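Lab notebook, bench 4. Still working through the backlog of constructs that have no structural model yet. Next entry is a single chain of 344 residues. Request: give me the structure tokens for it.
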Amino acid sequence: MTAPPLMQVDDLHVEFATHGGTVRAVRGVNFSVDSNRTLAIVGESGCGKSVSVQSIMGLIPVPPGRIGPGSARLRGQEILGNNVVNGRDVRGSEIGMIFQDPMTSLNPTMTIGAQIAEPLQVHRGYGAGRAREEAIRLLESCRIPEARKRAGQYPFEFSGGMLQRAMIAMAISCKPALLIADEPTTALDVTIQSQILDLMRELQRETGMAIILITHDLGVVARMADEVAVMYAGKIVEHGSADDIFYRSAHPYTCGLRSAMPVNDRSRQAELKPIEGRPPDLFAPPPGCGYAPRCPHAMNLCEREHPPEFTIGEDHYSRCWLHHELSRQRPRELHFRAAAGEGV
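Model written out:
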């Protein structure tokens, strides 16, 4: 019998009630990740990436938020709507999270060392002295110089890169099985970004933890991800390995993201092509494909019916009607299943 994935999310729906109506932010999302693997969830701002993982962590304010049908299982145990497993809160102990902005995520009235030590005292039962020593060791492992001195300092005394390292130290303090990194390199300069990504990969090799990486930076995806889920308007429109997404893109939106990405190779440099238009209004999501108004290959069917998952290859699927066996269009920039015919 095959063991279940470390984290399995099925048919996740999240809504927000506002004065203007109900925003359907996440509309039936499915993904999974296993130990020692990195899943990147990519897409433009507002597509539902952060809301998806925050709902798993129980960080959606209810109300106005509401988690509808769906399931999130950690090692086969349901955690969606109830983050307590075997009497223990999985947040911090089993799932760690690196937030997008460490300056607003850390408590300005507590020292860095105290904030890293707190999860150890709450989840692992450490005494104050032992927790402080472990906090210093974690700061050292995250390559913060003079860790003992820095542990007694406050967030305003740290640079942006050091704050992000401190956030990582706190997230991994209880040796979680899953680390969720929500835009971990936002607002950091290129050199510090590289150091943070290297640190995350090194920690993954040492601990075997799984990583869910939330980002809109395809350069980060290429460097970190084993698998990629491309999200648009609250739905995952393509899923595959990193190689599938970059070299065998099967959805027009994925191709659009790649075309808008600059490259350093002079032989491959070309004019960047922005994706024209804007995402659909999630107060009233369209009945068909959300990308249809912006898609250069849209058909009448795309506006009427939402496409199912079309299998392109092993663990590679795309939600696009162009992959239907009766489709007459086969755009050259898209990858199609090898066994499929040329259409009719």
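Notes after review: The radius of gyration is 21 Å. Confidence is low (pLDDT under 50) at residues 340-344. Flag for follow-up if needed.
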